[in-house]
Write a structure and sequence with these properties.
This protein has about 625 residues and is α/β, with parallel strands linked by helices. It binds coenzyme A and adenosine monophosphate. It holds the Pfam family ACAS_N.
Amino acid sequence: MGSDYHAVYEGWKSDPEGYWSQAAEAIDWFKPSEKVFDPDQGSYGRWFAGATTNTCHNCLDRHVEGGRADQAALIYDSPITGSKRTYSYGELLAEVKALAAVLEDNGVEKGDRVIIYMPMIAEAAMAMLACARLGAVHSVVFGGFAGHELATRIDDAKPKLIIAASCGIEPNRIVPYKPMLDEAISEAAHKPEKCLILQRSQHPVDLTEGRDVDLGAAMEAARTQARDVPCTPVAATDPLYILYTSGTTGQPKGVVRDNGGHMVALNWSMNAIYGIEPGEVFWAASDVGWVVGHSYIVYAPLLHGNTTIVFEGKPVGTPDAGTFWRVISEHNVAALFTAPTAFRAIKKEDPQGALIGDYDLSGFRTLFLAGERADPDTIEWAREKLGVPVIDHWWQTETGWTIAGNPVGLGILPVKLGSPTVAMPGYDIQVLDDEGHPLERGELGNIVVKLPMPPGCLPTLWNAEKRFQDAYLAEFPGYYKTADAGYMDDEGYLFIMARTDDIINVAGHRLSTGAMEEAIAYHPDVAECAVIGIADDLKGQIPAGFLVLNSGVDRSEEEIEREVVKLVREQIGPVAAFKLALTVQRLPKTRSGKILRGTMQKIADGESWKMPATIDDPAILDEIGEVLSTRGIMRA
Ligand code: COA
Ligand code: AMP
């Protein structure tokens, strides 16, 4: 059967406002928009200007009123703690009302920021929805970040309060959150008024008097009183959340998401892109701390009347490489969305896919991969072992949903391995050279999106409009810069090759090498350093830090390297996966002093490389190569 994609894409292109206005009919608005798109608001215009709505209403109340009260809304499945619980739409609404009542009792009002620092438990999703209900702006911080990263976000978002759990749980350890929370609050200049702490039985903590509230007990009281907290109307253009993502420095970028456009785009995507009907089970095996978790664990499936899964576990080791298949068969999952690294981990543990045979996967239709480049080996393996289409799609925290993909609901297009397929309606993707001239098909260049961005994409950065303009809009006037490089072939298929900035992608997690360099610079014995991402079979990339020590330092290099590894873990967090610190005599630089990170990476990865014409001293590259090969890191 042919795909409707081309006709739909052309339909969008000829009338973008008509296209999104029709998609907006699926959403409840308290007041309709005055303009579907207002080009005069914001940096590049705003979607659904003048409308009022509420995202929590559209995720929960609307479905309860519309007959889904008894349908499962959220399944919490936690192999790591051995617990499971299903919440119907009616039950989830009651929980969210209880949590919203606690927020209200603690002074949260429309527009206030609330930081959520929680592991993959149902309460994390409830906290997000409760903020949305009150028109408060949540900012979820991933549990694998350390206290310092949390402090940076506290100072930027200036939350009225923080919602946290007492701990997270990793396969080999309990991760106590309270010490990190306390450390972050003491480091930050801004002090939240209250912390709502969810006590987990695996690791209950002493609460700080006058500051901490026992969230579980407070919710129980609100539940007993059946507190009814109505949805606060917000403007479609008001912020729903801020999600911090890595930039080129240690100061993360606060990506702002609005209410109206976000709902329209996500709700539309569930059928058009993921091919899912309301009532079906959709599972994004990610974390609520990342954009995939925001969009496809919490908001999109609930907006669309689906059942979502909050999975607290790993693809391997909880308890084995069959966990994903167990969850799919047990909950009748129609589509799974995860990062390729999860599949590489499964493939490593169970290369034959033997565990797949233990489960009934007959209801499973499609596997979606994103977050990093999907390598052809992984795609082929998954396709062969699971017998379903494997769809790569490309997007970013900034966009919140797919820029280029293969739209299952519109009709799957032929897959080309290595390509996330084609531009989705809403995105006019072009490839430009560094001067901003369009390139021929097949030529490698800067991937940009012609403005305006579609509904759901970031309108700005939190309190940093100038940074937004500088980072995304200034370099190619009239276009949004994705900071990914790649090319488009004759049939419009896009190929994403590399980032054009200092971002690396470790196990599907976006990390800034600049932030790691800033952390390393704190070490008193380090004169200068460079962090690059080098190829890794499991995680895609891992960071490697090259250290130049101060002259006169006579301590052992191994000891300093160990301290540097510890420092990055303490400053950024275990998620940085920074385990490789290498002492070198000098760093290779251009004559103007720019460190040649790209060339270092090519040497480490065993790729072909050219001697940069502007290099100061070519001998330094040999020294780097020598250190890499002595340490057994350089690829053949
Ligand atoms: N809280 C605390 N620590 C965390 C954490 C969290 N939420 N998530 C990860 N960490 C820790 C890990 O325990 C590990 O610590 P260690 O150095 O003590 O072993 C470290 O951070 C690195 O984690 P990770 O890179 O995830 O490696 P891993 O070896 O634990 O697991 C995978 C490897 C492939 C199984 C895992 O990365 C994975 O499931 N990836 C899927 C990626 C994903 O969901 N991406 C989201 C975008 S779709
Ligand atoms: P994040 O903002 O964490 O979602 O990371 C976004 C970045 O991850 C993109 O800019 C890409 O560099 C990379 N990325 C995400 N999905 C893909 C994909 N399907 N193929 C290649 N790179 C991807």
